Input
Amino acid sequence: MGMSVTISAATEQDAEQIFRLQYLCFQSEAALYGNYRIDPLVQPLDSVREEVTADCVFVARLGDEVVGSVRGRVTEDGAAAIGKLCVHPRLQGHGIGARLLRAAESALAGERGAKRFRLHTGYRSESNLRLYRRVGYETVGTAQGADGVPMIVLEKPAGAYATTA
Output
């Protein structure tokens, strides 16, 4: 009998697993752009710990193993910036990313008063774009990542979080 993947708020004890998972998951993104200096690959462990403490961070667990994570925080304009969504490569394509997004959106709107959700992804990241569009995000612009990667910015209203599938 297999175990179920559960979604829960991250704890400080999860920071190291999130750090390692993030490094593994974002290798494919780095390869897409030929840039291994993207933020998720160079972020120090202490910074991940700070985010787990201060931000809205959720993890997907398979037993004791963290197999997915997402982070969000409400910005000055009332939007929730959601980022670093990742799912272990062996478990991608099973709806875990959408479940993590739904948990983050629910908490950011319900507990932190977010009026809309905003995220970004690299312009070549087709699987990410498919997921985000499927759950209601729409392209609102472009941006240049600090690492030089051109990004697509997507948003959806906070009232739409309940429809995330």
About this structure: The longest strand covers residues 65-74. The first helix runs from residue 15 to 25. The chain has six helices and seven strands. The helical segments are 15-25, 27-33, 39-42, 45-54, 96-110, 126-134.
